[in-house]
UniProtKB/TrEMBL annotation:
NCBIfam families from the UniProt entry: cysG_Nterm
GO biological process: siroheme biosynthetic process
First-level EC class: oxidoreductase
InterPro entries: Met8-like, NAD(P)-bd_dom_sf, SirC_C, Sirohaem_synthase_N
Pathway: Porphyrin-containing compound metabolism; siroheme biosynthesis; sirohydrochlorin from precorrin-2: step 1/1
Full protein name: precorrin-2 dehydrogenase
EC number(s) recorded for this UniProt protein: 1.3.1.76
Amino acid sequence: MGYFPLFVDLKNKKCLIVGGGRIAYRKILALLDFEADITVVAPSVINDIAILKDRIYIQMEEYKEKDLEGAFLTIAATNNSDLNGKIASDCRTRNILVNTVDEIDRCDFLFPAYIKKGNISIGITTSGHSPLMAGYLKKEISENLPDYYEPLIDTLGSCREYVKNTVPEEDKRADIMKELVRIGLENKGCLTETDVQGVILKIVEEGSGK
Ligand SMILES: C[C@@]1(CC(=O)O)C2=NC(=C\c3[nH]c(c(CCC(=O)O)c3CC(=O)O)Cc3[nH]c(c(CC(=O)O)c3CCC(=O)O)/C=C3\N/C(=C\2)[C@@H](CCC(=O)O)[C@]3(C)CC(=O)O)/[C@H]1CCC(=O)O
Ligand SMILES: NC(=O)c1ccc[n+]([C@@H]2O[C@H](COP(=O)([O-])OP(=O)(O)OC[C@H]3O[C@@H](n4cnc5c(N)ncnc54)[C@H](O)[C@@H]3O)[C@@H](O)[C@H]2O)c1
């Protein structure tokens, strides 16, 4: 089996983290990167978590089933395996997605090693076989990702909006975008207004037999 890389919008969605140790902290940092609304429940938290108090809710209490109310997803990140198991089954009863940090069989989803550069998100998993290799792959991919990809993707996003609004035929829009990506890559990220207008004109006219 493998894990499907679903890209989820976490902005302002309640993510509950039970446990306040080093592993919970790593998960919090990842979720903060994607603007989640984070609640931590634990009788004690490490200082790195405590200093995030202006950005996350911290409930200094033991876990209760009631804490799951309104959660979009939950992470069972305590050092008590039985408790993590109970949190996972409480979530399953309530149809809440759960990640359990000490038992892959009790995870609905895994945390990836990820690269986030502007609108680019790359997630890597080894399906639990070697988290260290996932981190190694992340480093390798990141080092080989040209810096101009990020701004080029932003430019292509604006061009795409423009093309969607001005060219009615879907097949032509796809041909135009293909050509813009080709030029953008060839020119190492540089794509001018003249390039865009030139490509649109050429492809629209080709189809009309001019
Ligand atoms: C990717 C990353 C994301 C993150 O944590 O945010 C992540 N683990 C990372 C690091 C890491 N984790 C561990 C080590 C020590 C070395 C080692 O064990 O290899 C290191 C290395 C380090 O700390 O540097 C130990 C470990 N991990 C898990 C268990 C429990 C178990 O296996 O049962 C144990 C205790 C094992 C034991 O008891 O010995 C379980 C999981 N860890 C996952 C994710 C999920 C599968 C991901 C995948 O394989 O694709 C999964 C299944 C669940 C989950 O946590 O979502 C992050 C790298 C981020 C980066 O580099 O960017
Ligand atoms: N998934 C991973 O990447 C990964 C990596 C290494 C270790 N682990 C696993 O993660 C577990 C947690 O590691 P850690 O270093 O963060 O542990 P830790 O001991 O530093 O922290 C445990 C936290 O759980 C909290 N806790 C205990 N009982 C609780 C309760 N009843 N309700 C709420 N919170 C409670 C504690 O207050 C503490 O904040 C380890 O036991 C290990 O099995 C996972």
